[in-house]
Every structure is written in C-alpha cells, then in structure tokens.
Write a structure and sequence with these properties.
There is one protein chain. This protein has 118 residues and is mostly helical. It is 84% helix and 0% strand. It is elongated and about 45 Å long.
Length: 118
C-alpha cells in the first residue's frame, strides 16, 4: 500500500484541482474556499513526495505527519463546500471517501513509525 501512496495522492490532488475549477466559478466565497481546498488538497501529495526524499526516518515522519494534517484540513474544506451547497453532495462523496482513506493510511504509517521509535 505504501508504494502506491505517491501515485494515489497525486491522483487525489488532480481531482481536487478539477473540483476547485468548478468551485471557483462562484465568485467571492467560492474562490476563497477553492483557494483553501487547493492548498491543502495538493499539499497532501506534495508532502508524501517530499517524504520519499527524506534524509532520515524522523524527517520522513515529519513529512507524513504534515501530509496527515493537510488531509484532515482538506476534509474540513470539503465539508464546508458541501454544507454551503456550492457543490452538490453527490459530487463530493467519492472525493471525501478517498480523503478519509488517505487519512487512515497516513495515520497508520505515522503511528507505526512513532511506535517503532519508542
């Protein structure tokens, strides 16, 4: 599972980008929420990619911990977009599910690394 994580998070980022193109069609609040979502949603994969070049196990854990925080933030923005009815719920379901799965994967990886360091 860990080996496909960089590709999976990149695919997730691309899905977020496409969603933000739609969200940004609504001026004002839409642009603001889209900006926040694109920053956190693409940061998940960027930090996973940085983890691949980590200089140490501690550096790797730091990058993956940041990716986890960004995934949690992405869920928050997706929820706000859904609750504000900028995008219909049925269009967000798969993306939110993927984000929840990424949270679970990253949580497991970070927990295992933290336990190993004890």
């Amino acid at each position: 599972m860990k080996r496909d994580l960089p590709a999976r998070t990149k695919k997730f980022a691309l899905r977020v980008i496409k969603l933000c193109q739609t969200v940004n069609e609504t001026p004002g609040v839409g642009w603001t929420l889209g900006d926040q979502l694109i920053r956190s949603g693409t940061s998940v994969g960027a930090n996973v990619a940085e983890g691949a070049g980590a200089q140490s196990e501690a550096d790797f854990l730091t990058k993956y911990s940041i990716a986890l925080k960004e995934a949690h933030e992405t869920l928050y923005w997706l929820d706000l977009i859904e609750l504000s009815e900028l995008i219909p719920s049925h269009r967000l379901g798969d993306l939110k599910q993927e984000c929840n799965e990424l949270v679970a994967i990253l949580t497991t990886i970070c927990k295992k690394l933290k336990d190993k360091r004890k």
